[in-house]
């Protein structure tokens, strides 16, 4: 495993001095009461402050808004316990894909992130865990070489330190601008999960809206326990592609978390307000507290 790690390090040469930087999690945002947001599901006009107080969930219909990786960490991880890995790792346009550099710059400016996943260690109700949280605000959480590498390194850290592993997934799939290198991240992350699992580690996968493509076809669905947020879209190919391929109309709840729970792909649907306690209970149960 050490050799594999070294080889990847040499190839990328972009992770140096990037480990164990302490960062502050996103502060709770204060929004004036006169700012309203229309809920995407129930169309009610609701003060934005009510969304924030309710974990960015619609207080009327329970619709879960997309949230950033930093906000999710703030909700799950104990205050001031998160240490981030590989914060400055960033993708290169190795395939010279037209427009990719500009796109990367645009998303870096918009999100304040360098890539579509935030990784590190932290505590959940005092229990130490390794955690990777994907962020759909950065190129739809697509998985390129750096996303795959950061997640793999988090898995390997958890393996080495015998820590429970949590990955919060959201993704549109593989990053097409990186060609075949993005696809091999599926095999790399899955192999790392296998080694982690062989050593008896607990891996909890959280599927959030949307978790699709290469991420759903690799580490997202490999959790020992797979949790999902209500109504999250989870699938590999999109609805239209499948409908055209099989020439049939799919049911309205197809690829939704509730449908996948019914079919046995998901173990439990957990509302955002209950996520931290659920994770805490599962980790405590695993380590035998
Ligand atoms: Zn609503």
TrEMBL record:
Binding site for Zn(2+): 39, 42, 58, 61
Keywords from the UniProt entry: ATP-binding, Cytoplasm, Fatty acid biosynthesis, Fatty acid metabolism, Ligase, Lipid biosynthesis, Lipid metabolism, Metal-binding, Nucleotide-binding, Transferase, Zinc, Zinc-finger
A matching Pfam family: Carboxyl_trans
Requisite cofactors: Zn(2+)
UniProt cofactor note: Binds 1 zinc ion per subunit.
Primary location: cytoplasm
Location relative to the cell: Cytoplasm
Domain annotation CoA carboxyltransferase N-terminal: ranges: 35-289
Pathway recorded for this protein: Lipid metabolism; malonyl-CoA biosynthesis; malonyl-CoA from acetyl-CoA: step 1/1
Segments forming C4-type zinc fingers: 39-61
UniProt catalytic activity: N(6)-carboxybiotinyl-L-lysyl-[protein] + acetyl-CoA = N(6)-biotinyl-L-lysyl-[protein] + malonyl-CoA
Gene Ontology molecular-function annotations: acetyl-CoA carboxylase activity; transferase activity
InterPro entries on file: AcCoA_carboxyl_beta (IPR034733), Acetyl_CoA_COase_Trfase_b_su (IPR000438), ClpP/crotonase-like_dom_sf (IPR029045), COA_CT_N (IPR011762)
EC number(s) from the headed UniProt entry: 2.1.3.15
Family: Belongs to the AccD/PCCB family.
Known partners and oligomeric status: Acetyl-CoA carboxylase is a heterohexamer composed of biotin carboxyl carrier protein (AccB), biotin carboxylase (AccC) and two subunits each of ACCase subunit alpha (AccA) and ACCase subunit beta (AccD).
Described purpose of this protein according to its UniProt entry: Component of the acetyl coenzyme A carboxylase (ACC) complex. Biotin carboxylase (BC) catalyzes the carboxylation of biotin on its carrier protein (BCCP) and then the CO(2) group is transferred by the transcarboxylase to acetyl-CoA to form malonyl-CoA.
Protein's name according to its UniProt entry: Acetyl-coenzyme A carboxylase carboxyl transferase subunit beta
């Amino acid at each position: 495993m050490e050799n594999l790690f070294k080889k990847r390090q040499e190839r990328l040469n972009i992770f140096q001095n990037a480990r164990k930087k302490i960062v502050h999690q996103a502060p709770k945002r204060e929004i004036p009461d006169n700012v309203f947001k229309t809920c995407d599901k129930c169309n009610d006009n609701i003060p934005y402050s009510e969304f924030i107080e309710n974990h960015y969930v619609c207080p009327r219909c329970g619709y879960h808004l997309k949230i950033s990786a930093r906000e999710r960490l703030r909700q799950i991880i104990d205050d001031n316990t998160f240490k981030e890995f590989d914060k400055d790792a960033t993708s290169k346009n190795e395939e010279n894909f037209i427009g990719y550099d500009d796109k990367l710059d645009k998303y870096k400016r918009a999100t304040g992130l360098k890539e579509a996943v935030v990784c590190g260690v932290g505590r959940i109700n005092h229990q130490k865990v390794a955690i990777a949280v994907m962020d759909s605000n950065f190129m739809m959480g697509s998985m390129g070489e750096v996303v795959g590498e950061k997640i793999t390194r988090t898995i390997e850290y958890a393996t080495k330190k015998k820590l429970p592993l949590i990955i919060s997934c959201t993704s549109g799939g593989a990053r097409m601008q990186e060609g075949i290198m993005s696809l091999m991240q599926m095999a790399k992350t899955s192999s790392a999960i296998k080694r982690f699992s062989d050593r008896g580690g607990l891996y909890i996968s959280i599927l959030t809206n949307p978790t699709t493509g290469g991420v759903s076809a690799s580490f997202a669905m490999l959790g020992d326990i797979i949790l999902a947020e209500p109504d999250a879209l989870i699938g590999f190919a999109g609805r239209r592609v499948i409908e055209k391929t099989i020439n049939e109309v799919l049911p309205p709840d197809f690829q939704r978390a509730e449908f996948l729970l019914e079919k046995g792909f998901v173990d439990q649907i957990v509302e955002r307000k209950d996520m931290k306690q659920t994770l805490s209970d599962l980790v405590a149960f695993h380590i035998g507290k």
